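Project outcomes to date are best conveyed with an example. Our students and postdoctoral researchers have been running inverse folding experiments weekly, and each run begins with a structure described purely in tokens. The record below, which covers 204 residues, was selected by the lab manager from last quarter's runs and is presented without edits.
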């Protein structure tokens, strides 16, 4: 169904661009916004703008943080095990592991995985930043790098690539256990499964 209102149609088209949002869901969201109070819509609009204006990548782990809060709270956190770095694909994976309340090390966010078919190579994700981070300490402080990428073809390719780069540094590289279903994305895995996968990690 096409609306006679160009404004509503434009809003539907924008919502439909979001991951996992079909046209029917986009229509419902647009109609919800239409019936909201102006101050609620203004708050929503400001939240969208703030995300683009204020959010940056942490200078250490590449996770998301606000301007003026760099390094991020995890990198600054007292009581974190700084000898272990967990490498993940996206900031949502950091949230997934933090929800388990089991892992107390640090993170490194790649912001993607190697995917030649999609034109994504090693230089397009934050691998260089990981190597620079480890080289700055000479590997003396970091004893283990945990590869916690989704068990997809692209994820496995990225794990193998990074593992080869890690070998000369003399740092132990491990991978989370196979409790995570093949092809699944970590952000959708429950906390108990993630905890078991982390506890059962194996050396590469």
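After processing, the design step wrote out the following sequence:
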């Amino acid at each position: 169904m096409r609306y006679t209102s160009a404004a509503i149609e434009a809003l539907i088209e924008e919502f439909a661009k979001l991951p996992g949002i079909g046209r029917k869901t986009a229509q419902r969201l647009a109609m919800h916004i239409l019936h909201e109070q102006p101050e609620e819509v203004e708050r929503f609009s400001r939240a969208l703008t703030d995300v683009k204006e204020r959010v940056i990548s942490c200078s250490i782990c590449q996770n998301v943080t606000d301007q003026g809060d760099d390094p991020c709270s995890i990198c600054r956190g007292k009581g974190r095990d700084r000898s272990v770095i967990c490498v993940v694909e996206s900031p949502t994976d950091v949230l997934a592991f933090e929800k388990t309340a089991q892992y107390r090390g640090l993170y490194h966010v790649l912001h993607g995985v190697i995917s030649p078919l999609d034109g994504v190579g090693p230089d397009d994700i934050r691998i260089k930043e990981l190597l620079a981070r480890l080289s700055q300490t000479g590997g003396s402080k970091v004893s283990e790098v945990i590869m916690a990428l989704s068990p997809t073809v692209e994820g496995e390719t990225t794990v193998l690539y990074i593992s080869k780069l890690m070998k000369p540094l003399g740092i132990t590289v491990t991978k989370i256990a196979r409790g995570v279903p093949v092809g699944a994305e970590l952000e959708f895995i429950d906390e108990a499964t993630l905890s078991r996968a982390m506890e059962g990690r194996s050396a590469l």
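The chain has a mean pLDDT of 88. The chain has two domains: 6-55, 64-203. The training component of this project remains on track.
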